[in-house]
Amino acid sequence: MASRDLDELLPGTQKKVEPWLQACEGIITQQVFVLCTYRSQDEQNALWAQGRYPLEKVNRIRELASMPPITEKENEHEVTWTHHSKHTDRRACDFALKMPNIWDLKADIDADGIPDYTEVGQLAEKFGLQWGIIAKGGEHKDLGHVQDNEIYST
Question: Where are the beta strands (DSSP E) in 1-154?
């Protein structure tokens, strides 16, 4: 299963994500919580298959990744656009904001005129993280995602 543990990130990425999450506590009223840090390539392959292949094939791939099966309804939509996620490199973090509708990307619970996801994402950029990855020619933004594009020597 994909991890939510910050210790699963590369040390350089962890040194950016941890202070960013701490800084978020001071600017928004909602809690930012981590949904995913590291995921294996098998898990990424299973997520890639979702919404692209028939349910039987998707669930076979999920089984190989030790993931539970999904339903036909869950297989109606693609959930990722890449085979090569920064999550498998331990350089990405998916997050959400704890609020009535965690996927309301335009919500401004703290009523400061800036959507809360925007506040959190822009703050991530100040810590050297890339926020809101744009995919598919700019038609989709992943506003609950930050990643570290720095290459670290081992």
Answer: 32-36, 92-97, 130-135, 140-147
* 1-34+88-154: CATH class: alpha beta
End-to-end alpha carbon distance in the chain: 25
Give 118's Cβ-side CA count (13 Å radius).
11
d(CA 85, CA 135) in angstroms, rounded, equals 12
Per-run averaged pLDDT (10 residues), the chain, 154 residues = 92 97 84 94 97 98 97 95 91 93 90 92 95 67 90 72
Contact 58, 46 (CB under 8 A): yes
| Predicted TM-score (pTM) above 0.85 | yes
Give the tokens for residue 10: 């590369």
Sequence spans of domains, the chain: 1-34+88-154, 40-84
